[in-house]
């Protein structure tokens, strides 16, 4: 009986230690109440968060605790009763005791309408692909933010952008969808190739998932070309 008790006690400590280890790279989506508690009216005004917060997250790792807000302009509602956004903004704040410091910000917008010619109808965050994970096992979360636009044909001629923050440095993959080879293009920041291999692999898998879900049309050999450090990828 004593041995069983000892084993149970050791198991408890092992589970507790594992749980404590997991919390160093923990993240969660905030509820509406939790979002409003952190992103108060005064706080939003001070930090120029002028758009409605569509989704908010918190995560913590060995460097501290962070809060992320994804906001969209919500300019109008179309005939399908979908919210149409002309602009998106994201904010990342680090919390240290009583101080809240902005670490990075994202600002982007749909292609402006010129002389009645509307190339894109809306832009929004693709939270299906947004992640807050430690991808290379260094104890630091590597946030991935994904958003995109709708063109005349929806996803097939809209744009997509993948942003990954590694140790606070942003790396972007910008993509123009098209069913026509000549107008389909992917631009990869050169910093992508200095990212740890697990992060590069994860981003490529994410791109493959986007293709599978028909949210992106990447060139057939895009993965191979990215391996060859092609900064601009097309179907030449």
Explain what you see:
- This protein is of the alpha+beta class.
- The chain has one domain.
- The chain is built from 5 helices and 14 strands.
- The protein has helices at 2-23, 32-38, 41-46, 197-212, 222-227, and strands at residues 26-29, 53-61, 64-72, 76-77, 83-84, 87-96, 99-109, 122-125, 131-133, 142-150, 159-166, 169-176, 185-188, 232-234.
- The strands form 3 sheets. Strands 8, 9, 10, 11, 12, 13 and 14 form a 7-stranded antiparallel sheet that branches. A 5-stranded antiparallel sheet has the order 1-2-3-6-7, with no helix packed on it.
- Strand 12 (169-176) and strand 13 form a beta hairpin.
- Mean pLDDT is 85; it is low at 1-24 and 230-236.
Calculate the mean pLDDT score and round it: 85
Into which percentage range does the β-strand content fall?
A: 35-45%
Biggest sheet features: 7 strands, antiparallel
Q: Element order, helices and strands?
A: HEHHEEEEEEEEEEEEHHE
Distance between the termini: 72 Å
Decide which structural class fits the backbone: alpha+beta
What is the count of β-strands? 14
Alpha-carbon Rg, integer: 21 Å
Tally of individual helices: 5
Q: How many domains make up the 3D coordinates?
A: 1
Principal-axis shape equals globular
Instruction: State the helical fraction.
Output: 10-25%
Low-confidence stretches: 1-24, 230-236
